[in-house]
Amino acid sequence: MRATIRSASLCAAFALVPATGCVLDTTRGGPPDQTCAVESSYGIDTGASIDHAAGVDAGYYVEYRGGGAWHLEWTCDTKLSAYGCNFTGSIVATLAPGSVVTCAQCEAEDLLTVTPGGAQSTIDFDTVTSSGIDGLDLTTPIGSSIDADLRLDGLHQADLVFLPSQGRAASPSCLPATLVPGAEAASAAAHLARPAR
């Protein structure tokens, strides 16, 4: 598996140019795995999303649309690098009665499984994404949090997970993370710019 940031523009955005010269690969150590010793919680603004370009802005993009509706999507930087990315992970959540988890814009070879386990279900996914967008939609009881364990090319790369939080685009400091929706009435829909780094 590759663990590579492949574009000069992304390296500049993430302030990697001075330290690494841009191209990182696992044969020279690659990016560090950003795994939490203790899972942290992050607030998600209800109705907000983060603008991004498919095939250019690599990473995960999380939305809580309100009414218990969650949408996660991901894309690679293939238009810049000519390589695809392997997005894998698990979401643990209490699903709303009768709700169905769907794979958004996935191809036939992409995997999505839902395993019930008492009050909560585990949603596992494994997709290879290039110039398009893959993702998933799920519905929880209104206001319920989800636990997200997200990996890109086999590593926790928290700096490539983008969350609308407190009116700005943010990233967790490490993964896995508990994502907590904001108050439904207090949040206004917003489209936020992806953070420059």
- Give the number of helices: 3
Low-confidence stretches: 1-28
Main-sheet strand order equals: 1-13-10-5-8-7
Q: Measure the end-to-end span.
A: 25 Å
Radius of gyration: 16 Å
What structural category characterises the helix and strand content? mainly beta
- Count all strands and give the number: 14
Shape: globular
- Helices and strands, in N-to-C order? HHEEEEHEEEEEEEEEE
Overall mean pLDDT stands at 82
What share of residues are in beta strands? 35-45%
Main beta-sheet strand count, sense and barrel state: 6 strands, mixed
Q: How many structural units, i.e. domains?
A: 1
**Residues in helices, as a percent range:** under 10%
Explain the overall architecture.
With 197 residues, the protein is mainly β. It is 7% helix and 45% strand. The strands form three sheets. Strands 1-13-10-5-8-7 form a six-stranded mixed sheet, with no helix packed on it. A six-stranded mixed sheet has the order 6-9-4-3-11-12, with no helix packed on it. A hairpin with a 2-residue loop joins strand 11 (161-165) and strand 12. The longest helix has 6 residues, at 8-13.
